[in-house]
Amino acid sequence: MKLFLKGTRCDTPKCAIERRDAPPGMQQARRGKLTDYGQHLREKQKVKHYYGVLERQFRRYFAEAERSKGNTGETLMSLLERRLDNVVHRLGFGQSRAQARQLVTHGHITVNGQHVDIPSYLLKPGDVIRVKNRKKSLQAVQANLAETGRDVPDFLTRADGPMPEGRITRLPEAMDVSIPVQTQLIIELCSK
Question: What is the pLDDT of residues 57-66, one digit of tens each?
Fold first, then answer.
């Protein structure tokens, strides 16, 4: 499944997933049917790789989602969507989540006028994400905005101009998640 981890490269013919018809390796033997545990694990790994979180971080997000009221799966995905590196990517400031993470850690982004260099920083509704008023920061982000031209999801608003900025208008919901995921399988696996 394409997770678009390489940004716009996955739209080109260089994408590795379309070149391979068989699994890697010399024998290329046919694999058996995936077990229930395998399906659950694959779904969890897909979400972890997509958002770029490690196992310990993922467990922490799951524990927080489990403690909160409401649907655990929707809360988990909402927490992952509210991460600063993900929001920077969804606003189009970075081509991929890895590049958005790098923009955050290198200090190109501010939240509510404060310097934030933690990619896992959880944003709240009403937070304003701005690009720092530095030549390098503005050049990098404006080049990405011109190249990607990505639409912004409903829970975010973007103001283009000399200093690009974005705002979180509401908490993300299940329909705002950009990856097709079955959260019920993740919950069944992590609840064991």
Answer: 999 999 999 9
